[in-house]
Amino acid sequence: MLQRPSRAVCAAAAATAALLVAGLSGPASAGTAGPGDTPAGLSAVDTLRPDAAPPTLLRALERDLGLDRHEARQRLRNEAEAGATAGRLHHTLGTDFAGAWVSGATSGTLTVATTDASDVPAVEAAGARATVVRHSLADLGRAEARLDRAASHDTALDAPVRYVDVRTNRVVVEALRPSAARDLIDAAGIEPALTRTVRSTERPRPLYDLRGGEAYYINNSSRCSIGFPVTRGTQQGYATAGHCGRVGNSTTGYNRAAQGTFQGSVFPGRDMAWVATNSSWTATPYVRGAGGQNVQVTGSTQAPVGASVCRSGSTTGWHCGTIQQLNTSVTYPEGTISGVTRTTVCAEPGDSGGSYISGSQAQGVTSGGSGNCSSGGTTFFQPLNPLLQNWGLTLKTTTGDPGDPGDPGDPGGTWAAGTVYRAGDTVTYGGATYRCIQGHQAQSGWEPPNVPALWQRL
Q1: Which of 329, 352, 370, 444 is an active site residue?
Q2: pTM, full prediction
Q3: Domain that residue 155 falls in
Q4: Which positions ≥6 away from 226 have C-beta within 8 Å?
């Protein structure tokens, strides 16, 4: 989906979070957690400041999710706390973890699934609702991967979408014909109890637009949109969708001034790319919201299933919806991409490559979908953190210089603000060693001793 570069970016919605600290003192459904509720440090609400959400973001949530102003604010608060709690429980439950999701008009209930009934007290003590299921998230993920491997291009076009549905504890295959889903499941050799078939007429595709418009242009022809400004060392640039261009393709800006060159591009398989810009273009820590208002980007923590998310496109403007599934596989006419996030946000040709953002947390770049913003639709976005990790890029944020090793007085070590860490990475800080327990973009103020939701001391 194509969209304007810096002119049209989303203003997100949900606050998610694993940038956080200590535990919740009450259930996420209470929705009243505040600075005084977390004696060990700042809460998710303190860190992500959903109460400071810009009016344009709140109005988009009200319009698209049918909320009033109070409910929109409450939803952002609840989602901030729920994201933090889900991240901590994922680490605590380990291989028993079977997913998490929020529900209710204001995301007032966090449900965490586990395969072991003995985990229920720990889940409930964290303020979440527990449900015991048969299959772990890892088991479901392996089944989805087998479906992807078994899918030939022709058969996958009739069963184009596969995803893990944590709510039903199944791998869902969406197909135009039930027989197409059965053939694919049989070819993958998957236990039927792991799957569920949903009849759907969707035929997702990348939403190209060759008519031009304010955005960035590829080889003076097709156009797409800037996702998020990034840096790699001293080089500035931006993240976008892989189907927008290939390595070596040149770009011009919305004003047709020379801009940059595609340095990396993956599509199909994934849908991610980055463009290095010339010295006339400067990376900023903002996406462009409604009316040209700057929306701050402070990190890239993944939002949970059920959380609200918003996007702004050069064709369709601001629209919000919810995250339906993570780690989705979808087959376009050009091939299959995996690891994308499925949402209820609508989009149209002209929106590709643009930003998805939840609260102040960058989520990903627009890939493709079906439907439109008149009758409704489904869209998919390429998550941002794998894109940053793939090419060693640093997201431009408002919380400190990405090259800054930390606050004054930083005791040193290998930890560095601005770095994207994945689960399992180890760093040193203040003479101690820490292991990352949830992928995130490091920021000043989130040093390992301060954020036990992100780092475990070894």
Answers
A1: 352
A2: 0.68
A3: 137-203
A4: 4, 5, 6, 9, 215, 216, 238, 239, 240, 353, 354, 355
